[in-house]
Write a structure and sequence with these properties.
By secondary structure, the protein is an alpha+beta fold.
Amino acid sequence: MSRRPAPPPAPLPQRLGIDPVRLRLPLDEEIDWPSAGAYLRHRLGGTDGGRRPLVDRMLTDGGFVTADGSPLPPEAPYSPGLLLWYHRELPAERPVPFPIPVLYRDERILVVDKPPFVATIPRGRHVTESALARLRRELDLPELSAAHRLDRLTSGVVLFVLNRRDRAAYQGLFQDRRVRKEYRAVARHDPALAFPRTVRDRLVKERGELTARVVPGEPNAESRIELLSARGGHGLYRLLPATGRTHQLRVHMRGLGLPILGDRLYSGPEPEPDDTPEDWTSPLQLLARSLEFEDPVTGERFRFRSRRELVLPS
């Protein structure tokens, strides 16, 4: 099977740690567009056309460029297959007032201790304040990429890759489940529940939905849960996920009747909207405590542990 050749490098620099967007004019477009700009107004102008003035301004200001960095003229003819790059409009974001400590760095990887409220990668309303964008800016690492993700509200150990050439090797560790992950969580303690126990079920999270849910079918999510200590109605739990489904640990703890402390999505009958103002002093009590794996390049065995600690409420 022949592979499509790799696209040329982006002719635009990153902006605030965010890559420019690459767009290819369709090869089989049925509409006879009078110009490339007409297509861009249609494609990027929004379903109600409300963003078309922004597209017009970008065309006038040279905001769309071709592979050699030349601005696309506003009335350039439609050229099927033409590659264009542009910077998307970045949302205004509330800065997250926590640093991202570095646990380890060598010529291939960067391991950090992510604070809560920081998205691992740009997503939705959290773009320039994501860990990826911040680390690219703060450490001057434009090729930095995430080998895996943590939920925005979860804190703890995250592995990043410094160079594009090494990205697939380290992402493959997580895709092939060759990483041992250990979490800690604080939740309600129920003396009637026996631990340790293993939870297995089938989880789905549909695009556009805030929460994951359990559905009938072959299990695709597995977590071992251990109780480490208990006091005053709360317990400190050790969580060992064998799989990595979205919100897996949060759903499994709620399924036991033990929603994780500070969980806005799974503690009540309805999830809180994502735009609810956040209280920096009440983070989700879920910590990615450690990652352990064999380096796919050198064969060296690594174990990285968070410096953060969860404590039971007094």
